[in-house]
Amino acid sequence: MGGHSVRAEGAPQLIKDTVGKSTQFDGKQDVLFIDQHPLAGAKTFTAELVFRPDGGAFEQRLLHLESDESPPVAPGKGSTRMLFEIRVVDNSWYLDAFMVGAGYRVTMMSPDKLFPVGRWYHAAKTYDGQFFRSYVNGELQMEMATPYTPQTAGRASVGARMNGVSHFHGAIHEARFSQEALPPARFHT
User: Fold this and answer.
1) Could you tell me the end-to-end alpha-carbon distance of the chain, in angstroms, rounded to an integer?
2) Please, where are the H alpha helices in the chain?
């Protein structure tokens, strides 16, 4: 985890699969908490995940990055954060790439772009100073012009929301972060 301390809840398991070592999450109670926001201060960025969704509940959070900013973004709107979530529909899923902060709130979902569960995928989101984009396996899912203020230092959770709900059922092989907006040809697949 980049040399940062990690606190586990539940019992996430280290497994070896076709992509190599990964962490398996049960979709019920497994989550990892890390006292680090890897994109704090980034004016542009790329966040990437290699993961395998295994079905389960409709709403699942794979990765949650949250700033320690106070007060919250707006009353009742929560804190400054960015996330990777999926929505599971029958035996398929679609990506939800979300971020919120002072002056911006972006939800990027394409329910018509479904992928089968039980396979490995690469998901990415980028911000180039003007556009926020989301990708699955290098294919653009959505893009949106977005004003963005870099997020501050904070923390992360892997496998569930920061408050311990919306658990992910599947495995995560890798999360990578860059402080530049990479084109799909430079994604780490």
Assistant:
1) 18
2) none
Q: Tokens 């709900």 label which residue?
A: 165
Model pLDDT for residues 56-96, shown as the tens digit of each residue? 999 999 999 999 875 555 555 568 999 999 999 999 999 99
Residue keyed to tokens 């900013």: 69
Which pLDDT tens digit goes with each residue over 123-180?
999 999 999 999 999 999 999 999 998 999 999 999 999 988 999 999 999 999 999 9
Report how far residue 101's alpha carbon sits from residue 109's, in angstroms, rounded to the nearest whole number.
18
Q: Which of 146, 171, 148 is nearest to 86 (CA)?
A: 171
Residue 27: both structure tokens together? 């979709």
| DSSP characters over 101-130 | ETTEEEEEE-TTS-EESSS-EEEEEEE-SS
Fold annotation for 6-183: Jelly Rolls (2.60.120)
pTM above 0.90, yes or no: yes
Closest by CA position to 56, among listed 15, 29, 87, 30 = 87
Q: How many CB atoms lie within 10 A of CB 113?
A: 16
